[in-house]
What does this fold into?
Amino acid sequence: MPLLHKIAAVVIVCAVVLGLALPGERRPREKAPAAERAGNTSGTADAATAAKASGAPAPGGSASPSASATPTGPIPAAAPGAVAVKANELGQVPVLMYHRVVKKPEMSLDRSTKELYDELTRLAKGGYCPITAGEFVSGRFNVPAGKHPVVLTFDDSTPGHFALDPSGRPLPDTAVAIIQRVAQENPGFRATATFFLNKELFGLEGGPAAVALKWLTQNGFELGNHTTSHPNLAGMSEKKVRDEIGGMEDRIFQLTGAHTATLAYPFGSVPRKEKWARGDGARYSFQGIFLAGWRPSPSPFATEFDRWKIDRVRSEGKIKENDCTRYCSTAWLEYLDKNPDERYTSDGDPATVSFPKIAEDRLDGTYRARARSY
It folds into this structure.
């Protein structure tokens, strides 16, 4: 087994031993173990374009409304349509984490092409609508009423994620082609995902890499930063942390002319000082950072949400390895199906945040102007 995957396995096992939250449990985030808090994320677009497209501010800005503008008094009533679909925009959102996609898995983090197709089809049939990591962090995304947002993230930019055939179309067994296939077979399932990039860039170099990245951004997919060489940032100096992140950002910008909006921590390992990863002047400035933990993320409108420690769920079946019977995607999706009141359900209006009155104490006050309850 390659060294990177051995390290990843050790991190995951340690997280389980330290005690991760059971499905449905929400522990105070500051008490969560380091491995659970670690994460991965990325976004695409240069500052102005990303802000205009998703409603998010340019990198370096705040994605939340100003606290000084927070209204007081009773929260207005939710629209009848929101009530009819039992909207709960303070519910949990699955942010799924994928690594290699291959025909026949060889390592624990691999997913077969069939497993990816089956899981995406399950999501589509279950009423989930994919959004990008950048959109999720911004709190501005358009999901139809009664549907549930899901964030599909792919780490390490391996060849199985994306490649073009001679005619300029995605190769059939790549993640991108599978996502597009599921979208074609299930109207309303959006063909999008966020790819957290390392220097390998799908095994491409030079011109082909630039063509591939531009194809992705022009066809509704998002790019994110996952550092240059995928190191453990936890024990590194400030200079090395900034060089790893900034070096990858420089390359992405050189190839696409756009900056990323989000970062993914390799192995979910957080630097000694988190501010080193959040921004470095004009070189990089993220809107959010994703972890590698084993639970769905709180809603971006909930008080529990921390844009610098966004939880993700490993895509995997209910197997014994690393306690996937309780913490991997199959188990969590089953849990949310059985407990729909805990899942994020959209009201269909990107300008409002609708939820049951009983959940009002979970609302982040900076979103009170958009709040509607029933």
